[in-house]
From TrEMBL:
Catalytic activities: (R)-pantoate + NADP(+) = 2-dehydropantoate + NADPH + H(+)
Coiled-coil portions: none
Domain Ketopantoate reductase N-terminal: 5-152
Family listed: Belongs to the ketopantoate reductase family.
Pathway the protein takes part in: Cofactor biosynthesis; (R)-pantothenate biosynthesis; (R)-pantoate from 3-methyl-2-oxobutanoate: step 2/2
Function in brief: Catalyzes the NADPH-dependent reduction of ketopantoate into pantoic acid.
Keywords: NADP, Oxidoreductase, Pantothenate biosynthesis
Phylogenetic placement of the source organism: Bacteria, Pseudomonadati, Pseudomonadota, Gammaproteobacteria, Pseudomonadales
Protein name: 2-dehydropantoate 2-reductase
Superkingdom in the source lineage: Bacteria
InterPro entries associated with the record: 6-PGluconate_DH-like_C_sf (IPR008927), 6PGD_dom2 (IPR013328), ApbA (IPR003710), Ketopantoate_reductase (IPR050838), KPA_reductase (IPR013752), KPR_N (IPR013332), NAD(P)-bd_dom_sf (IPR036291)
EC number(s) per entry: 1.1.1.169
Length: 305
């Protein structure tokens, strides 16, 4: 009998993983917040994934954090700001040899979870797949992509990568996952906050090329200082390429703000500015960008962290 995939968080990415694993015949359990969410989920009779306009419902078993089963494998699919407290609720069920896969964007939440569970193996992930929630328990697979997984403490890949293969989840084991996460964080810092400040699609940042270039120079300096020179390489060229390739898109931070949802700022620009302070590095434009973004969040009555 294969190990159960416990999935914490039945939002966009949690659903994307749960439905594909279940479709491949693998055992999956969804962990929902509480009895009320569980009752609501059970009334919906499963998770619906919409892919290429075709929808299919998967009756994945749901449970609350107080379920009886021990947990050997946990996919953490919450937002970065929820990850630590959501995992803490499951601490009593996590086995000594538990493996956690952390899907959170940005940096900071992964280390917080790992510090909370020194015995467990925490695998960090960085994904370019895209999905959004159309309604509760109904997710649209919007952008095909790739997920890189890695463990900077232990380079040996886990045995269950075969299961991802069987489930059709495109992935690669990465020996430099931190470099990938830093690079993604830098791209995010150079693009997403400006799309909120200028209220625009990614492509319109082509009109703000100088500002983008200045931010890339500061971010490059930060990456070098944080021991991530590979993540700094040709950063500006990649930022410009992403702005061009995703010109018609609204960034995830823009969408969070537009929908009055909390952003993950503390794990993105906030994390970058904190790292700069720790290294006594003065990055005036990045720090000013953080302040301007916080001011904008406050005006919109959204959390500033
Ligand atoms: P999401 O749609 O908001 O889903 C988060 C889920 O976590 C929600 O269903 C929420 O429950 C659940 N949750 C929060 N606290 C919980 C708790 N204590 N117990 C049980 N469930 C809990 O978020 P997402 O878009 O999947 O993003 C997850 C992470 O992946 C983020 O860091 C994001 O940046 C990253 N990411 C997302 C995408 C994407 O395309 N969506 C792509 C790449 C990376 P409720 O339903 O009850 O609120």
């Amino acid at each position: 009998m294969s190990t159960i995939w416990h999935i914490l968080g039945a939002g966009s990415l949690g659903t994307l993983w749960a439905t594909r694993l279940a479709r491949a015949g693998l055992p999956v359990r969804l962990i929902l917040r509480d009895e009320a969410r569980l009752a609501n989920y059970q009334a919906a009779k499963g998770l619906t994934l919409v892919e290429h306009g075709v929808e299919q419902t998967y009756p994945v078993i749901g449970e609350t954090p107080h379920g009886p089963e021990p947990i050997h494998r946990l996919l953490v699919a919450c937002k970065a700001y929820d990850a630590q407290s959501a995992v803490a609720q499951l601490q009593h069920r996590l086995m000594q040899d538990a493996e956690l896969i952390l899907l959170q964007n940005g940096l900071g939440s992964q280390d917080a979870v790992a510090a909370q569970l020194p015995q467990a193996r925490c695998i960090f992930a960085s994904s370019t797949e895209g999905a959004f929630r159309q309604a509760d328990w109904r997710v649209v697979f919007a952008g095909h992509g790739y997920t890189w997984l890695g463990d900077s403490a232990r380079p040996t890949p886990p045995v269950w990568l075969d299961e991802l293969q069987a489930a059709g989840i495109p992935h690669e084991w990465s020996t430099d996952i931190l470099t990938r996460l830093w690079r993604k964080l830098a791209l995010n810092c150079a693009i997403n906050p400006l799309t909120v400040l200028y209220q625009c699609r990614n492509g319109e940042l082509q009109k703000h090329q100088c500002e983008v270039a200045t931010l890339c120079a500061e971010l490059g300096e930060l990456l070098e200082c944080c021991g991530q020179p590979a993540a700094a390489q040709d950063l500006q060229a990649e930022v410009e390429r992403v702005i061009h390739a995703t010109a018609a898109n609204y960034s995830s931070m823009y969408q969070d703000v537009a929908n009055a949802r909390r952003t993950e700022i503390s794990y993105l620009l906030g994390y970058a500015c904190q790292a700069a302070t720790r290294h006594q590095l003065t990055l005036p434009h990045l720090q000013q960008l953080q302040q301007r973004l916080i001011d904008q969040l406050v005006v919109r009555r959204l959390p500033r962290d």
